[in-house]
Amino acid sequence: YLFSNSKEVSEAVDDLSMILAVSILLNSIQPILSGVAVGAGMQSIVAVVNLASYYAVGIPLGLILTYVFHLGVKGLWSGMLAGIALQTVVLCYIIYKTDWELEVKKTRERMKVWSLKPSHEESNPIREDDESK
């Protein structure tokens, strides 16, 4: 009643508040998991998981709940939340099964290839026999 005195608006907010709470929870976890996976170099896996979760599960389920079961906005939102929940579970599994020690080794190897040598080493290398003189 802070923004409207309408009983219809109040009932709609009451009806959708649980879905909103679940949405806030999942939408706070899922981007972190996606970021971790992308940061670990799994961009293509995350892209496939995103596409499958939203377009193969979330949207079709939302449309079925909306038009077949006549749930309206609640059905569409619930379907999309199911897609986000699936994506969250799959990304949790992927991150859990990732060998992080191997990822660190790969990163170290990439750093060796991509890191620049300091300029003083390239232009004036110090030899052990030069130091003794």
From TrEMBL:
The chain crosses the membrane at residues 16-38, 45-69, 75-96. One of its GO terms (molecular function) is antiporter activity. The keyword Membrane applies. Keywords: Membrane, Transmembrane, Transmembrane helix. InterPro entries: MATE_fam. It holds the Pfam family MatE. Signal peptide: none annotated. It comes from the Eukaryota. One of its GO terms (cellular component) is membrane. PANTHER family: MULTIDRUG RESISTANCE PROTEIN (PTHR11206). Belongs to the multi antimicrobial extrusion (MATE) (TC 2.A.66.1) family. This is Protein TRANSPARENT TESTA 12. It comes from Noccaea caerulescens.
